[in-house]
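Follow-up to my post from last week.
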Amino acid sequence: MSEILRITDLAVSYGHIEAVKGISLTLNKGEITALVGANGAGKSTTLLAISGLLKPARGQVWLDDVDLSQLSPHKIVRSGVVQVAEGRAILTTLTIHENLELGAYTRRDKVQIAQDMDWVYSLFPVLKQRAGGLAGNLSGGEQQMLAIARALMARPRVLLLDEPSMGLAPLLVREIFRVLKEINRTGLTIFLVEQNVRQALRIAQHGYVLETGKIVLADSGENLLHNPRVIQAYMGG
Amino acid sequence: MLEQQLFNALSLGSVYALFALGFTLVFGVLGVINLSHGAIFMLGSYVALLLVDKLSMPLPLALLAAMLVTGLIGFLVDYLILRPLRARNVPHLVPMIATIGVAIMLTNLTQGLFGTDNKRFPFGTIPEGSFNWGHLHVTAVQVGIIGISFVLMLVLLSIMRKTQLGRALRAIAESPKAAYLLGINVDGLFYLTSFAAAALGGAAGVLVGLSFNAISPYMGQPMLLKGIAVIILGGMGDIRGALIGGLFLGFAEVLTVAYISSDFRDAVAFGLLFLILLVRPSGMFGKILERKA
Amino acid sequence: ADIKIGVAEALTGPAGKYGVAIKNGFTLAADEINAKGGVNGNKLALIVEDEQGKKEEAINVFKKLIFQDKVLMVFGPTLSNSAFAADPIANAAKVVAFGTSNTADGITQMGPYTFRNSVMEADVLPVSTRAAVKHFNIKKVAVIYGNDDAFTKDGYNVFKATLADQKIPVTDTEAYAKGDVDFKAQLTKMKAGNPDAIVCSCLAEEAGNIILQARSLGMKQPFIGGNGFNSPKLFDIAKDAADNSIMGSPWSSENTAPANQAFIKAYQAKFNMAPDQFAAQAYDAMNILAATLKNVKLSGNLAKDREAVRVALPEAKWDGATGKFSFRPAPASKSGKAVGYDAQQDAIVNIAQHNKFVVLK
Amino acid sequence: MLQFNQISKEFGGLRVLDDVTFDVPEGSIFGLIGPNGAGKTTVFNLATGLLQASGGQIEFSGHSLGKLAPHQITQLGIARTFQNIRIFKDTSLLENVVIGMHAHLDYGFGGLLSNSRSFQRIEAAARERALELLSWVKLDHKADMLADSLSYGEQRKLEFARALATQPKLLLLDEPVAGMNSAEKSELMTQILSIRQRGYSIFLIEHDMRFVMGLCDRIAVLNFGRIIAQGPPDEIRNNPDVIEAYLGKEEDE
Amino acid sequence: MLDWWDAFWSTYNTVIYSIGVNALLALSIYVTLACGLLSLANAAFMGIGAYAAAIISLQTGLPFPVALAAGTVLPALVALIIGIPTLRLSGVYLAMATLGFGEVVRIVLLNMTITGGPMGLNGIPLKTEFWHILLLLAIVLYILARLRRSKIGRAFEAIKADEVAAQLMGIDVSGHKLFAFVLGGAIAGLAGGLNAHYTFTIGPGNYAFESAVDILTMAVFGGISNLIGPTVGATILTVLPEILRPFRDYRLAINGLILILVVLYLPNGIWDPRRIHAFWQRRKARKGL
Ligand SMILES: Nc1ncnc2c1ncn2[C@@H]1O[C@H](COP(=O)(O)OP(=O)(O)OP(=O)(O)O)[C@@H](O)[C@H]1O
Ligand SMILES: Nc1ncnc2c1ncn2[C@@H]1O[C@H](COP(=O)(O)OP(=O)(O)OP(=O)(O)O)[C@@H](O)[C@H]1O
Ligand SMILES: [Mg+2]
Ligand SMILES: [Mg+2]
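User reply:
Got it. Predicted complex:
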């Protein structure tokens, strides 16, 4: 497997507090990689740094041969790295349909966009019913669906997901993981931050465990799933 | 008389709308009440005046040049002042205070360079006098202003509603962070907005300078207050609202003069504004997000 | 030694257009006087401060001039409203405050140290109105005035009394506010009453605009204006649309008296623009002061000298750009305290023809 | 103690709740589950006075809530956390919690202005209590930091502590464990149980079935605005309607 | 030395009075800003206070404290009346409604006889003394400081951060907002009463849009996270034009430039406790090394 995204010695600070303390990891092309860790470990911080919304104190993020840490956020999205952020970042004053259209902001292929629109609507039929309504009036879970659907509209090369199953009903959680596996099969690389550790590791080829800003474990998803330390710390024994 | 008053109202309302267009654009996208818009408006008419008067430039060219100059100033204000403030996530009133500083500076500098007295475009810059239309007396500038505000409004409106650019601008307005995540060149669009808004303000200045012969360093001040009224009336950053709010204010003022008393022109206009806000707390077009939690 | 004279005028802000002309008038006069050797060998040293047309600033500037710069007396401030704030300071400090542009009622009643050479509308408007009525055979008029400005509102009150006095019916009275540029609504309403003339208590810039807009509405009536009309600005803006406007004032650019013509020429040469009434009154005021100082023996004791100026000033007589001038005591104040001095001058009635005012015959 | 009586709610024609009736018994842990958009959060919004019902009555310990403003309802003893976290970001953690005690700090205006003994005593006690609450959720070491600097999961815990500070009789929790990992969930479960032991009643919305089933005495299931089932966890788990609409076929979770 | 002081005091006492009065005004808007209300009515309240106090002084023989009290109570009452409908509005909409109210007040003052129309009221006796301003400013500061440290101050903060969450903390949001609005109105009115009695004259133009913006600028410039900020902001912005006098025609441009630079480099205002705290921390750290 060839690698597509490599993080080297990435450190991110909020003022004086260093939240991510020099981590290195790689994402292989076409694979799902999971990042797990306790609250406050620095997972979201890592993702925001990859997307350029936080400027790293040191370290690089390589996409193929491009150092993303030197690019502005919109260029990072243009190069194919798209994130579903924590808290969803839904545009509440725009309609659902407009949110989705903006998902395809970096694309110019009209026909494909229309097809993809049909596709995401078929994944989340509720969104289609409410297409013309304001996104802000959606329920929490519905907004989560919209956020994922919107990211898919960008046809990313690398998809960064920050707790995509948060706030979703069990049926939908399963559905989301099924969809992730499915789109992963089409060759999409996924970097998955999840509290639903078991499910995440089950679909991930690789996983990293983050504790207080440092990577303490890296292994295949399978192995981590059975690692006693992981079970004890993150799967409630 | 009524038809003349209605036309007066339409043309006054268009002036307000024209001023408010750029104002509302900045407000809608950057979320900043740009109190330097009045000064930029004023600067627009000085630039055009200078070009027409000293360099004998034809008016249309001078108008474009004035828009370019004010646009650049708008861009600079954004680049040098508003952008650093955005980056630092400051209390939301702070950018507005910074624009007050800009307004004071521009006004004072203009006054230092051009003096305090009122100026006008040279005679003959535009066709003087009026033509009659039944009982109606209409001047060329009035028609021009009405036409231009409607056209600009329609153009801006279709950009905002129909294009990806417009959606992106509205996205930025709500959440720059979300917009970044969508691959929108947020800074670029902020600059573009500031440029366009200031250019529109400059154009308004030229047209108002042409029609009222009262170009002075302070001409932006009274407009500013009216402009704020218009954009609030129309609803936060709503393009349609700028026009309708402008017309509303124009009609309120003129009809107050015609049927109540010119002593209470502003009182009635602002009193009405007050009442409208009580009934529609987000202006005439403000959308209300009902969801609370 | 130099004689320090304070000048507190609005040099910036919306009132700056008047303040700057006033300052120019002072500078011109002082330069001329100094060039001729000053007053009894002493040069006049002007200390000019900007009071921005704001009352607090006017107070601050007066205090600075009086207590810090220790001037002999103070000219200014520009606006009547500022004078109401600043002149009490001068009276309390026993320093002459000499206004050249304050026309409001009551200014000189504030105390014995207040003087002005600005003519009051009450002295002028009855004369010019009567002349206009006769000249155009006016039966009824409409009135427009600025209602949030002390000067134009005051003028309006005088017009109103004058029109009532002379039994001329008013078809319609309209007001506008500072900063308004569109007067069409008011004019349209006035037009409906079909008046023979329009009485306009306005400043020149607004008046020019009002005239232009009236013409564009097809109104051909002559205008009758107050002091505010007496400015080249009127023609800069309205050109010959202003023809037939009637205005009364002690100063006219067409007054051929040598003193006036010399003033106009010198002013034009020095500042590269035509003077207005504000400049002329300031110019005369400085000369009135200089003439008075000639007869005052300055002791070097500031308090005594300041008092000496107050005592000498009422006797001043001058024939300058604005014609023959003398002071007359202000009307007694209600509270019975001592009062200052107003201007005693005759008005010339002018009519606008071909972009300038000429004397109405 | 909290009763919904034939409640309905519409948003501009969209019927979100329809004839909803249930009763949260005193001293219990009551669960509300259902698919996304079923109307669960709306139930909370009605119970806390943020929304007005289109029809039906809501009662809390014998008081009708219909006409009461949200702050009055809070003072009656209902507190809540939010699905989309709403902490006071520019304020320290400690202050966040002390704000929750607002209604219970009864020093008068005079005491406040004169900085009287009793004022000082009450304020000090409030701070002490706030620290204790923060220590419950293991955030006491960050008491003086700004709430903004907390991670997502930590913010939830802060909200929890703040809600407790209002001294509620009934605590409404909207997806309290969203964004927490299993270890943290278990921890919160123990906390909630211990809180119940102190006499609080709890009404919670959650999508995490292990959490809900493990904790609740009774569960109501909402689907498209209607209650489709109500009962103890075991009954709900095996209710075919609930499986069909919400749970899906049980996997080996 | 004494001479110097005499000259200084007689030249600059009005400036110093203005510092005090402007500090009161900045504090009056601080109160509303503290609970997230952007109200621009304070200039109008100042005007109402000034007119009320001046009319009492001019037309009745009542003593100064009575005039001041009237100048404080009347705007508070007006605030109470207009606050009830208006405070439902949020953000700039509230700003605009209050600005609209201010315009209406100005025009009413302009058209009433008792207020002297556009001439305003003149010959108001000089009654304000330095210690009046100092004492009243100290009292206002004390009251506001006490409020800040109590549940009311915390409630303001909560309302400013999130009204919905504040309600659910048991805070009577509209009650607290109204209280802040009325308190702000009273303080502004008091400032107006004091101001009228040392400037001899008041006019309707003194309390318009520009004054409203000036008041806001002083508060934000100084910093609105605590009470010192507005006071410092008022002081600097009152004194600055005097200091810049030597720049003559361009002094306002420089004034504007300074405003921009301060806002740019100290966006939380001149007096920003967090920055000052961080500064000392860093110094300590450096010394420790
Ligand atoms: N804006 C901020 N300012 C200061 N510190 C912050 C900020 N955001 C996060 N932190 C701190 O950085 C650390 C990492 O936070 P981060 O949000 O990356 O955690 P996380 O792993 O995503 O946690 P969670 O699972 O709760 O979402 C935490 O200790 C948090 O307190
Ligand atoms: N103000 C509103 N206007 C229009 N529709 C609304 C409004 N508020 C809620 N809704 C709709 O009502 C339905 C119920 O919303 P609610 O938030 O109660 O769902 P929920 O059960 O909490 O869902 P989730 O589990 O996703 O949080 C949703 O379809 C939502 O879109
Ligand atoms: Mg996170
Ligand atoms: Mg919900």
